Amino acid sequence: MDYIKIPMDIEERSFEIIGEEMGPHNFSDRELKIVKRVIHTTADFQYKDLIYIREGAIDSALEILKKGTTIYTDTNMAASGINKAALKKLNSKVECFVAREDVSQIAKDRGITRSMAAVEKAAAEGVEFFVFGNAPTALFKLIELTKQGKANPKFIIGAPVGFVGAAESKEEIEKLDVPMITIRGRKGGSGIAACIVNALMYMIAR
Amino acid sequence: MDYIKIPMDIEERSFEIIGEEMGPHNFSDRELKIVKRVIHTTADFQYKDLIYIREGAIDSALEILKKGTTIYTDTNMAASGINKAALKKLNSKVECFVAREDVSQIAKDRGITRSMAAVEKAAAEGVEFFVFGNAPTALFKLIELTKQGKANPKFIIGAPVGFVGAAESKEEIEKLDVPMITIRGRKGGSGIAACIVNALMYMIAR
């Protein structure tokens, strides 16, 4: 069988096809890199209309990544989708706090969910870069903590998917005055959250 | 803020909403569990029309899972999306061969991609349960090996996503006489592949 076997060639050709098919838009060059990568990850052109990239958000994200940071993710899946080679070049790391033992213990001691304990722990440890691809409850928790002055997010990717709370969680997070990229409505997911991180990293390290 | 905080409650309510909104269908009860979980993972009702569940495929998958097996995945992301507690109950494990050192070495020695070396290695080690959520090249490789009698897949999830080779890889795999579940067309992804495995496991262990 004859097929393209080189991953980078596949990606380049895919981005060309997406550009040809996506139709008119008002995205900047940098925004377009993010939008195309989301469509590349999902084969779903609707994301063109669902993505919200707040003005200044890309600059804020790159500023944090350039100095090296710990990226919080709400799932192991989002963490595993983030490119480790690019992270390393940026002296950054990704951590899914929900998998940590001390977080399990906090959740048990206080009778709260691990998702919520994970956000509290990340906030307490000064995490600035938050990535949500799954859990509306975690996103709601970050909103609460931020309003209480207990969390200081400098950049948020809000992309929970689902039918209960997901759309609402993204409406609520947009009320915070924080640089962010969200996927509006029910759609989203860990893969999408991860690929937005990758699109940002690839602007400065690949 | 008032929001549902219990993951199992969220899932149950989500499945109800999906049932209400998905409209008429001809799925069996077991098929419906898979279809609903895919829609739950993506918030995309189009998967109702894209999923192909071959007759007997669910029985074949459950038979393999019941005896305990090693599940091959083409990405770490698919592996990380598969429920570890359910796997453990089934005396099964998941392995993303592409991340293995011996696979890297084979790829380097023979000048082939790691994706292809990973499938070869899995086939040589007698893996029966293959899960593809990303790489059309890996899927094509399994087709080649199966035709050559060098691989013996007993169940395949074919869900690569993308614009170059993904749809074609799924058309080709369907020509094999093997129990399988595929996502037709361009759509798919690691999260979808993983959630199909979970839907199957939850029929016998949760």
UniProtKB/TrEMBL annotation, chains A, B:
Transmembrane segments: none
Keyword Isomerase: yes
Protein origin, superkingdom: Bacteria
Keywords assigned: Cobalamin biosynthesis, Isomerase
InterPro entries given in the database record: Cbl_synth_CobH/CbiC (IPR003722), CobH/CbiC_sf (IPR036588)
Domain Cobalamin biosynthesis precorrin-8X methylmutase CobH/CbiC: 9-203
Pathway annotation from the record: Cofactor biosynthesis; adenosylcobalamin biosynthesis
GO molecular function: precorrin-8X methylmutase activity
Pfam families: CbiC (PF02570)
Gene Ontology terms describing biological process: cobalamin biosynthetic process
Similarity comment: Belongs to the CobH/CbiC family.
Protein name: Precorrin-8X methylmutase CbiC/CobH
Species, as recorded: Clostridium carboxidivorans P7
